[in-house]
Design goal:
This protein is about 30% helix and about 40% strand. A 7-stranded mixed β-sheet has the order 1-2-3-4-5-7-6, sandwiched between helices. By secondary structure, it is of the alpha+beta class. The chain contains 4 helices and 7 strands. The protein has a single domain (about 1-140), classed as Gcn5-related N-acetyltransferase (GNAT) (Aminopeptidase, 3-Layer(aba) Sandwich). Strand 6 (about 120-130) and strand 7 form a beta hairpin.
Length: about 150
C-alpha cells in the first residue's frame, strides 16, 4: 500500500533523514553536515511510504518571508512512480493553505524540467549550492498545473 503523509519532529527526522542521506549524501556526494540543518526541527515534512518503507520525502520551511521547498528526494529504485510529483504538490498545497502567495524551490538543474511541468518558473541565473548547480524557481496558484504527472 502507498501512503503519503505530513510528518514532524522526531518521526520526520527518522523517516525523511534516511531517504535524504541515501539520495543526497551517498548518491550525490553532499556533505552530511550541509544536508541536515536546524530547519528540519520546524519544517513541514512529507513522506511517501510503500508499506513500511519510506521511499520519498521533501520539506517546506518559512524563512526570510519565503515559503521554500527543499530536500525533495526519491530513493533511486522508486523513481518513475510519480512520488516526487506527489511530494511537491502536497508541500505546495500546505504552503498555499497556510498563507503563501508564492512558493520557491532551489532546483537542481538536472530536474528543472520536472519543476516546470508542475508550473514553477525559473528566476535569475544558475548558482551552486552544496557543490551542485541549481536554479531558483517560483510558483503561484495561477501557475500551478492541475494535472499530476
Amino acid at each position: 500500500m502507498i501512503e503519503a503523509r505530513y510528518v514532524f519532529g522526531k518521526e520526520a527526522l527518522e523517516l525523511c533523514g534516511s531517504i535524504r542521506y541515501e539520495v543526497f549524501t551517498e548518491e550525490q556526494g553532499v556533505d552530511v553536515q550541509h544536508e541536515r540543518d536546524f530547519y528540519d526541527h520546524f519544517a513541514h515534512h512529507v513522506v511517501v511510504m510503500e508499506g513500511d518503507i519510506a521511499v520519498a520525502t521533501g520539506r517546506l520551511v518559512f524563512t526570510n518571508e519565503i515559503f521554500l521547498l527543499g530536500r525533495i528526494a526519491v530513493l533511486k529504485n522508486h523513481r518513475g512512480k510519480n512520488y516526487g510529483d506527489l511530494v511537491v504538490r502536497m508541500l505546495i498545497d500546505r504552503a498555499f493553505n497556510i498563507g503563501a502567495e508564492e512558493v520557491e524551490v532551489h532546483a537542481q538543474l538536472s530536474v528543472q524540467g520536472f519543476y516546470e511541468s508542475i508550473g514553477f518558473i525559473p528566476i535569475g541565473e544558475p548558482f551552486y549550492e552544496a557543490g551542485i548547480e541549481h536554479i531558483r524557481m517560483i510558483i503561484d496558484q495561477n501557475s500551478l498545473q492541475k494535472s499530476c504527472q
